[in-house]
Prior knowledge:
Elements: H1 16-40, H2 44-49, H3 53-69, H4 80-99, H5 108-127, H6 152-161
Amino acid sequence: MTETRPKRPLLAQDDEENSDLIYDLADSIASVEQCLSTLATKTPAQIADSLEATDQAKLLTLMAYTLHSLYFGENPLEHPVKQELERVREYMNKIKSATDKPSMKLNVAAANRFINHALTDQDEEKGGEEKGEKTDEKEQGWEEPKKVATTNKQRENKKRKK
């Protein structure tokens, strides 16, 4: 469907920039016509049946958005079609968020549990040593970690030590 460009420009003037833009527009229109002719040969149900579930959802929301955006003749800001477009946009965003790959997120609560558990294990190891065998942590280059929060297990260990 792509036509070869004629040797003479479409414009009467010899304006290269405008003629290139016109040829690009003609190519784009030909491409859109080709896509539309493909879509026009099948019903929306036939097209949707040949797609996966996420692609079906994308197609249906795109069709709804396209049909609603074609409405003109009245002020679209005051017309109910604007509400419909917003509703369709929400569905499009839901589909996009469902199909996007999840990003890595830090679970702060789980990280705190790991840290508290590690601190509890260190306290238990220290509690098993003799008092005379303990060495100064600062001499070894270790500093006592800040306690984030005490857990039930840490409280029970402190009660046992007393």
